[in-house]
Amino acid sequence: MAEKHSLEARADLMQRMADTVGADLGEAVASGRISGPDLRAATLRCYYCTAAETCSAWMSAGAPGAGDGAPRYCENRLLFDRLPQGYAALGV
User: How is the chain split into domains, by residue range?
Assistant: First the structure.
């Protein structure tokens, strides 16, 4: 079955990627490190990305290399790289 291509599904995929690489989107927004418009722009980058199936498969395969950040093809890699790490990334 093809992955559902909706804004909500892509927002979920983006959150899953952030969690996988340890980028704490919630903390970044709460602390003002990124703004609401920044978060919307990131969601739209994910929405229009053509690698969603590859992205989902990478995470389903255990996200090899996730300690180095999101894959190079990730449209939000630069954003995730500059965000604080969440509890999952710290092993808490």
Answer: 7-85
pLDDT tens digit sequence for 76-91: 999 998 886 654 444 4
Burial annotation 15-52 (CB, 10 A radius, 16+ → b, else e): eebbbbbbbbbeebeeeeebeeeebeebbeebbebeeb
Structure confidence by residue, pLDDT tens digits, 38-53 = 999 999 999 999 999 9
Using CA atoms, how far residue 2 sits from 6, 50, 73, in Å, is 12, 13, 20
Quickly list H helices, 1-92: 7-21, 25-30, 36-48, 52-60, 77-81, 87-90
Biggest CA–CA distance in the chain, Å, is 39
Closest CA relative to residue 22, chosen from 65, 73, 61 = 65
Q: What are the tokens at 82?
A: 């500059």
